[in-house]
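pasting for ref
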Amino acid sequence: MAKTRRFKKIEKNLVSNITNGLKSLFSKIWSGILAFFRLCDSKLTIMIVPHSQSKPVNFQTNIFALCLGIVLMGGIIGSFVYFNKQAAVSSSEISRLINENRETLASLDELRDENNNLLQTAKRFQTSLSQSLSLLGINSTSSVSKASMGESDLSSLFDTQSQVSGSTKEAADIRQLNSYLESAVQPIEQIGKMLESQETLFTDIPNIWPIKGGIGHISMQFGQNVHPITGQWYIHKGLDFSTWRSGDPIVATANGQVVTVGYDFSFGNYVIIKHKHGIYTRYCHMQTARVKKGEFVSQRQVIGTIGNTGITTGPHLHYEIHIGSDVVDPAKYVNVKLSK
């Protein structure tokens, strides 16, 4: 029992001490609040004394109003500085956007110019394609117009340019141009198939440069010329090809069979090849011949080398084409310089 009373007494003393402490704390807080309000309510007299003989100006206020005024003034000044800085940043961003807009407009103008150039080129392409298809006997109207359903013809494209403006105009032009190019694929594929089917015919007809790699130049044309040795006018029955040196390889200009490998006082070492369709080719002034009579050769096969044999003023190849008994101008057939 004595022990229980002692614990209760300690508990009562502890509660009493806590209660007294809280009362003392709240009392001090309340006293501080009252002191603060009394301080804020303290009266102040502000006097403005001019340097002239004017009457001084004074007014009364309290500390609370003065502090509130200072806070408001600080807030106003801070807001002014902040918004002024934001305005400067916005102005810089607007200037940057204006410059970018100018650059974009310049690029757009350049794009429009290139678009117009592309349309002009496409128009020329359409004309050339139509002519080529007509020469080959392909119906360009059905091949192109039918594939594009009447919407990709460049003539309609140019007719509708006045009906649209701005970026819509460029977009419409590009769409119609794309449609036309897609429709042009079919006739071009037909041309490719036709050329592929005629590849044998092309290899049977002399139509390539007779010097390997397409090197050299034509030093004398077919027809009436001044003889380089006699100085007299005469009919030159072939083309002279020169590389300014001997030893460059000569190639057969078409598939055929070698019918003559010989030497002539005028032509020097020469080779004659018989081709289909009654065509013969002759290669003269050769340094060496690399084929034999009766041998079958293919187009671009090396048959000899350029030389200086026979009556010449320097190393060159004299090249002739005969159709039956007629001598024709090889320039009409030598139309491609191949690098193969």
